[in-house]
């Protein structure tokens, strides 16, 4: 399939020929559809807390013992999608066409003074609906003639302007959030921000501009790491005949494999508790108390879940005669006087397994298949418990883009809670369509994770990825049609085999900026 020069190209990227061959085979056979049992709803699958429950979760978080906290912010790529409509408007003006008054580009120009990045010297005159003024505003926003925002990452764009004149980027707002609800006991706030290598200097400049001021203002010490999506995780593209796609110089074409590749970056974090939030989902600081409260609710529920699961695993060790640490590097077997098989059939073991199955079903929507024997039952339950934990905030469906919460059937006969994107749902299946239509919530990527096992060791997160949960999309390259392979998404297939809890959070905590006009919403008008 590959020539000598192809093999050199593949290996220089840090990948292997075997991996690329497997990717081509995946294009040929596709991905299996996930079997949806039902949408996750407040009736089953989404936890809805009253005020007392929310306060209890916050208290649990505030008092919990945690082996390090970190905020993980996916911020890779340029903000070109955010300005897609503006590029379209500029192209139309350059072609001599008029902008409809209700078009996104025309609305943007009319409201230019309401954006944090407005500068009267850069955008003189107006606002008016004349073509030359519109063209000037759009060009000075998008190109290097002015701000150059059409090629810069969202994280360094000016999002909010405050009454005292302070202007904050999206990245700066994440720093302010982190010092509030993700501060460590020693007063530090750790952030890991995934960026593109070519944008590193922009983020470093944005950080340097506010670091000293924020550390003084909030009494915090920041520890910031910038990481990159590994080129070795890029996937090969193919043509419509599933043959490796070749660029104009006859080299293989590789494409970024989606945010699922960031599981490698997440796997390098050694802190126990990680909060994940997209770079564009920040609001003005006046909304921070509500945001922080519900983030702490998610964190508290994650830690309650952690302690419950770790308690069950320790009990399983005891009742099944596993080695019990006695300190000083010694360990001795628990003495029950029972034979090996008798242990798994003992009343204590059976009762504990009953409790665990009830917990998994009630709290995590995991229904276990019937086990063939008592030992098999114990090991199946142990495997289900001993996994990374994630708690995902879910907001009521308001038509915003995002993955949805569902209960699905697993390959081993159990069920689980999963976040599914629309491309993962078989629209030819009537049951799947009905489940999608009756879904009540969607995932705003407001996730907290516990990444240590019950013995205090970091999980190898790559062991818990479902390789069958990726998808294939249609793209183009220089006018030529191709197929692209996306790895299992970070909060989809990459976390498929985690223990998952969905918790309803208020819509007010979700304030994404998908298009530039979103910055005109009240949450961003400080």
What's the main sheet like? Answer: 9 strands, mixed
Label the CATH architecture of the largest domain.
Answer: Alpha-Beta Complex
Number of helices: 14
Helical residue percent?
25-40%
What is the name of the CATH class of the largest domain?
Answer: Alpha Beta
Strand content: 15-25%
Rg computed from alpha carbons, rounded to a whole number of angstroms: 26 Å
CATH fold-type name of the largest domain: Spore Coat Polysaccharide Biosynthesis Protein SpsA, Chain A
Q: Which outline best applies? A: globular
Structural class: alpha/beta
Mean pLDDT: 92
Number of domains: 2
Q: Supply the CATH superfamily name of the largest domain.
A: Spore Coat Polysaccharide Biosynthesis Protein SpsA, Chain A
Total beta strand runs? 20
Describe it.
The chain folds into 2 domains: 29-79 and 153-309 and 384-524, Spore Coat Polysaccharide Biosynthesis Protein SpsA, Chain A (Alpha-Beta Complex), CATH 3.90.550.10; 81-151, no CATH class. Helix content is 34%, strand content 19%. The chain contains 14 helices and 20 strands. The strands form 6 sheets. Strands 2, 3, 6, 7, 10, 13, 16, 17 and 20 form a 9-stranded mixed beta sheet that branches. The longest helix has 32 residues, at 288-319. The chain starts with a helix and ends in a 22-residue tail after the last strand.
Annotation keywords:
single chain; 526 residues; alpha/beta; Spore Coat Polysaccharide Biosynthesis Protein SpsA, Chain A; nine-stranded mixed sheet; three-stranded antiparallel sheet; 14 helices; 20 strands; 19% strand; globular
